[in-house]
Automatic annotation (TrEMBL):
<dbReference type="GO" id="GO:0004252">
    <property type="term" value="F:serine-type endopeptidase activity"/>
</dbReference>
<dbReference type="InterPro" id="IPR002470">
    <property type="entry name" value="Peptidase_S9A"/>
</dbReference>
<dbReference type="InterPro" id="IPR001375">
    <property type="entry name" value="Peptidase_S9_cat"/>
</dbReference>
<dbReference type="Pfam" id="PF02897">
    <property type="entry name" value="Peptidase_S9_N"/>
</dbReference>
<dbReference type="GO" id="GO:0005829">
    <property type="term" value="C:cytosol"/>
</dbReference>
<comment type="similarity">
    <text>Belongs to the peptidase S9A family.</text>
</comment>
<keyword id="KW-0378">Hydrolase</keyword>
<feature type="domain" description="Peptidase S9A N-terminal">
    <location>
        <begin position="10"/>
        <end position="421"/>
    </location>
</feature>
<dbReference type="InterPro" id="IPR029058">
    <property type="entry name" value="AB_hydrolase_fold"/>
</dbReference>
<dbReference type="GO" id="GO:0006508">
    <property type="term" value="P:proteolysis"/>
</dbReference>
<dbReference type="Pfam" id="PF00326">
    <property type="entry name" value="Peptidase_S9"/>
</dbReference>
<feature type="domain" description="Peptidase S9 prolyl oligopeptidase catalytic">
    <location>
        <begin position="482"/>
        <end position="701"/>
    </location>
</feature>
<keyword id="KW-0720">Serine protease</keyword>
<dbReference type="InterPro" id="IPR023302">
    <property type="entry name" value="Pept_S9A_N"/>
</dbReference>
<dbReference type="InterPro" id="IPR051167">
    <property type="entry name" value="Prolyl_oligopep/macrocyclase"/>
</dbReference>
<keyword id="KW-0645">Protease</keyword>
<dbReference type="GO" id="GO:0070012">
    <property type="term" value="F:oligopeptidase activity"/>
</dbReference>
Amino acid sequence: MGEERKFVYPAARRDDSIKDDFDGTEICDPYRWMEDPDGEETKEFVKAQQAVTTPFLESLDSRDEVREKVTAYYNYEKVGCPFRKGDRYYFYRNSGLQNQSVLYYRTSLDGEAQVFVDPNEWSDDGTTSISSTAFSKDASLVLFSISEKGSDWKTVKFRRVSDNDFMEDKLEWIKFSSFAWTHDNKGVFYASFDKPAEIEAGADKGTEGASNKNQKLYYHVLGTPQSEDKLIYEAPEFPNRMWGAEVSDDGNYLIISVRESCEPKNLVYYANLSSFDGSGSSLDIKELVSEFEDEYNYITNEGTLFYFQTKEEFICIDLESPDKDSWKTLIPKGEDILESVCCFHQNILVTTFIHDVQHVMKLYELATGKFISDVNLPTIGTVSSISGEKEFSELFYKFTSFTYPGTIFSYDLAKKESSVFYETNVKGFKPESFTVEQVFYESKDSTKIPMFLFYPKDVKRDGNAVTYLYGYGGFDISLMPSFSSLRCAFAEGFNAVVAIANLRGGGEYGPKWHKAGVKEKKQNVFDDFIAAAEFLITNKYTCAKRIVTVGGSNGGLLVAACMNQRPDLFGAVICHVGVLDMLRFHKFTIGHYWVSDYGCADEEEDFKYLIKYSPLHTIKADGREFPSTLLCTADHDDRVVPAHSLKYIAELQHAVGSQDYQHNPLFIRVESNAGHGGGKPTSKIISEYVDVYCFIGYALNAKWLS
């Protein structure tokens, strides 16, 4: 860090009379008022924090050089896998620094690209984005799920493919919904919530914090108002349940996936659509899977034979004989983790498996599960997307890795070989100048944990390299090798090591790996991350004062909890949109969905372990200086509400920042007109990373190399 200095932080009013009783244990919540994002006191607190943070960040050395490098490395053409709909091939493309990617189409694979829709035209600041699209079966109609200011709330608009203008139809109050067209083009199935009372009272969409419950499944008939949409299914006795709708490939069935948490388990219902026209009598909805015991993802069907991917297998269920004893396993559980299945060319399955945190790709026959062949991949890495349709023979996939910017391949089934369709080029980036390695280290309980490292080849193993340590460790999410031009810019700019730790709680080794890092076992995740830092120090990559830990969302919980437990082990902490109040997270927006990973403080046994690691409640001024800390949140984050970060920084500054021995800065950065991260425009991404990298340089006393 630079010269030693003492920071003065804005005072936040503490109301120690606000307390919650957890089965006889009283917990004070002095900053409860910060849970109202539209309250004047909250707004003034944010303004006061920014008045300290912003000038500090803008005063840091090398901002121009950092911005130049970050911008240059982000300014490359980004192209997504083409996907065929009817006679057109669609693909997303960003020329480099466009705020949002543009959706293009071609009438042939080598035809001229034409703009289909450009979301950059929808807002001056680039904060309106396409969240998803859904084409009708004949590809003559399309809907766009649109997000504003990064909010999880979506507005759905429709258009005919042959027209340039949107239709009058519009759907609102949609969040976490799939979309499924009936094959007669009359309408679409979707799920929505009731309009929140806070928004009725004048709150801005995306800033309200009320819990989202009682989602309902509807059918919208084109040309009619949303108020007339037909209610297909609801379950008020199960307010946490959410509904995912699909129409079968043959158009004859509605498949409903029922979930009630983030746990990878769901129920499956179905209904025959042969006489459904969107009005009149209700659908006869039947249960196919009636217990939350596994995950069932519909892949395709042949008549009454329905094919599902589970967490570890590929199975077939006959609707005419749906008893579990009659289910057939076509691809059984193996040593590798089955991650994805896609059907193309009528009867061919393309699958990806995870083997020691890298992808393996294989082809199988649909009806029998018979192995056909491997698909050879270029190196250790990830198949980040696959594009194929059952009725078409084309197959495209995109491959990426830490120093492999991304190549789209087309696959020739007859020749059983891949050819390059599009290759990404990042000007000035030289993959050959990097070393990439995978290591395995022991956690506190001797469990072997994998971790990827990449760094410039001239980094010295002298125990002094700047090291960017990233982790997540939750919700069955696997951190696979992927390219990030921003991380590569960091590695080159600071001549640094980038370390990605594959912690328990993720999905890298299947359900057991995930379960080993949830609820009462969550401390395993923190132990894994702490052990990663200790491994890097012991093996002379770096030292404690040169490590910055970075995490977002559940990863924000990770880095904050580890900082509270071991403030001596890190030089800096970057906590993006973190879940930091583990006693109240379930009370806001979609937080109740996370109870499957965290537990719930309203339950006595869960409270006992949550209070031990909840970042907001475990800040201790015990004489150890805390690392330089930068929290990053956003005013329209309705996934992890800003109150988590606001309350945490207030407590951190109060308890630790006031101590004579605390010289490292403790700051918060609040982005305006942005959410949890999805749909964030390029301009905001670059500005945020310039601030973050300059802060890290200051905190670790590291010079940016021009």
